[in-house]
From TrEMBL:
This is Universal stress protein. InterPro entries: Rossmann-like_a/b/a_fold, Universal_stress_UspA, UspA. PANTHER family: STRESS RESPONSE PROTEIN NHAX, UNIVERSAL STRESS PROTEIN UP12. Residues 1-142 form the UspA domain. Belongs to the universal stress protein A family.
C-alpha cells in the first residue's frame, strides 16, 4: 500500500489538500498519513517570556492541533480511505521531509498559499523547501480563491 504523506496546517488550503490526497489514495490503492507540525512561538522580545510560558503556549497549540487533526482523520476515513495521523514540533519543512523518509512515502501532497515572492523571502516557504529536497514526488495544491464579482455600472 502506497503512503501519501499529507501535511496540514488547518488553513484555507487544507480541504483542497485533503481532497487531492484522497483522490490520489484511491487511484493508487494508498493510505493517507496526515502530518501537522506545531510551530514554536516566535520570540520578538526578551521581556516576560519565561520557559514556563513558552511550554504552556506550545502545549495549548498541540492540544488544539490534536483535536483538529482528529476531525480531519474522520473526514478522510468517511471517504473510505485508510488514514492515520502524526504530530511534530518545530520547522515544518524539516518535519515533512523527515516523516516522508521514515514512512517511505510514495507521495507528499501539500498546499501552496500563494504568497508573494517578497513574503517567501522574508518568512520562507515550506512548499518551496519540500520541493527542493524531497526524494519522492510532491503534489502541490493551490488555494482556490473566491472569484470577485464584477460590478455592474448603472446608467
Amino acid at each position: 500500500m502506497k503512503t501519501i504523506l499529507t501535511p496540514v496546517d488547518f488553513s484555507a488550503a487544507t480541504h483542497g489538500v485533503l481532497a487531492a490526497a484522497v483522490e490520489l489514495a484511491r487511484a493508487t490503492d494508498g493510505q493517507v498519513v496526515l502530518l501537522h507540525s506545531v510551530q514554536y512561538p516566535v520570540v520578538t522580545t526578551d521581556y516576560g517570556l519565561t520557559a514556563d510560558v513558552m511550554r504552556e503556549t506550545i502545549e495549548i497549540s498541540q492540544n488544539a492541533a490534536t483535536k483538529q487533526i482528529a476531525h480531519l482523520e474522520k473526514l478522510v476515513s468517511a471517504k473510505g480511505v485508510p488514514v492515520s495521523s502524526r504530530m511534530a514540533s518545530g520547522f515544518a519543512a524539516g518535519n515533512i521531509l523527515d516523516e516522508a523518509k521514515k514512512l517511505r512515502a510514495a507521495y507528499i501532497v501539500l498546499g501552496s498559499h500563494g504568497h508573494t515572492a517578497f513574503y517567501d523571502l522574508l518568512v520562507g516557504s515550506t512548499t518551496n523547501a519540500v520541493l527542493k529536497k524531497a526524494t519522492c514526488p510532491v503534489v502541490v495544491v493551490p488555494v482556490v480563491r473566491a472569484k470577485k464579482k464584477k460590478s455592474v455600472k448603472k446608467r
